[in-house]
Specification:
Elements lengths: L3 H14 L3 E2 H8 L3 H13 L4 E4 L5 E4 L12 H18 L1 H12 L4 H13 E3 L9 H13 L1 E8 L5 E14 L2 E8 L4 E6 L3 E10 L10 H8 L1 H4 L2 E7 L3 H8 L7 E2 L5 E7 L2 H6 L10 E4 L2 H17 L13
Parallel strand pairs: 4-6
Antiparallel strand pairs: 1-3, 2-3, 5-6, 5-9, 6-7, 7-8, 10-12, 10-13, 11-12
Helix pairs in contact: 1-3, 4-5, 4-6, 6-7
């Protein structure tokens, strides 16, 4: 690439796309010598970009946080919040409209804020819904961790007010039903999990990078929908399956993400619904060859028993029904 200006802009895009690069990687991507690369880095520094170099055989380059916003009179977190809003608006207003506004905003942002916006664009997946509640700093840091495949730690409070400490490998952020969810690999539990960003505290990026993991589904939104019982499904029950956890996961796939092994060697599978009927209908997914029982409120069990009798009568039976047994 002969044009120094175009080459410098491409170099800047690389530095903004990833946290750090080795000198050899940048030279190879730009098709220039190490000496030319150093001149291009100096050119960016003259333009006000704080590019630092680390020693080593190949050397390393990193774009540091720096600079303030131009005369928009916006605080840093306000600018990130606008970028988040534009990303979500792309669903309702159309991709071109939202992205056009986002590009105009990015042109006026300081480098470290552009990095946050870029991370949100690449690793935050909108799944519809209104009334998005988002902490800009938390979501931006999670998006950067997704981009860099960097493990994080945080405190978490579940819907039942149980506090735990989590150590995870972030994969994707999903906006769903007015909230941000982190889809990630839970290191301590060796399984995929989803966490609401508004229930997190003390987020810490560890600096430990790991290879990318493949999701068990094509769309991370499926994982959020399968486990989002605390916000969109106020009624809950637990199905006790007479098969090991591994078999339950094979049969139910992502919908068994919240399942756990029980002391009897079977599987406890939490289900949820907006109404008693919705919750009961979830049991229709259980294959007939898998024995199961149910722990639920009396009104749920009553509806399930009535449904069983109706199904038996409709099928011409009636003498015998196969419903849940009390564990």
């Amino acid at each position: 690439m002969a044009d120094p200006t175009a080459r410098a802009l491409r170099l800047l895009s690389f530095l903004q796309a990833h946290r750090s690069w080795s000198g050899r990687e940048l030279s190879d991507r730009l098709g220039v010598s190490a000496r030319t690369l150093r001149r291009d880095v100096d050119r960016l520094r003259e333009l006000g970009y704080d590019v630092t170099a680390s020693p080593g055989t190949d050397g390393g380059y990193r774009l540091q946080d720096g600079g303030r916003l131009p005369p928009l009179l916006l605080e840093d977190e306000e600018a990130v919040a606008i970028a988040v809003a534009l990303r979500v608006a792309a669903v309702a207003l159309g991709e071109q409209t939202a992205l056009s506004a986002l590009v105009k905003l990015e042109q006026m942002l300081a480098p470290h804020l552009r990095r946050r916006v870029s991370a949100l664009q690449e690793h935050a997946v909108p799944a519809g819904g209104r009334g998005l509640h988002v902490d800009a700093d938390t979501v931006a840091e999670l998006a950067l961790a997704c981009r860099d495949r960097e493990r994080v730690r945080f405190g978490y409070v579940s819907a039942l007010e149980v506090q735990t400490s989590r150590h995870v490998e972030p994969h994707t952020l999903v906006s769903f039903q007015g909230r941000w969810y982190l889809v990630c690999w839970d290191v301590d539990r060796a399984d995929w999990r989803t966490f609401r960003a508004d229930r997190m505290s003390g987020l810490l990026r560890t600096g430990v990078r790991v290879p990318a993991r493949d999701l068990p589904v094509a769309d991370p939104t499926e994982m959020v929908m399968a486990t989002d019982t605390d916000s969109s499904h106020p009624l809950e029950a637990v199905v006790h399956l007479g098969v090991p956890l591994a078999e339950a996961r094979r049969v139910f796939g992502v919908w068994a993400t919240g399942a756990s092994a029980n002391a009897e060697g079977g599987t406890d599978w939490p289900i949820g619904g907006s109404t008693v009927a919705d919750l009961v209908y979830a049991t229709a997914w259980i294959p007939p060859e898998i024995p199961w029982s149910l722990t639920a409120a009396p009104e749920v069990r009553e509806v399930l028993a009535v449904l069983g009798h109706r199904l038996a009568a409709a099928s011409g039976g009636g003498a015998e029904t196969h419903g849940p047994t009390q564990p």
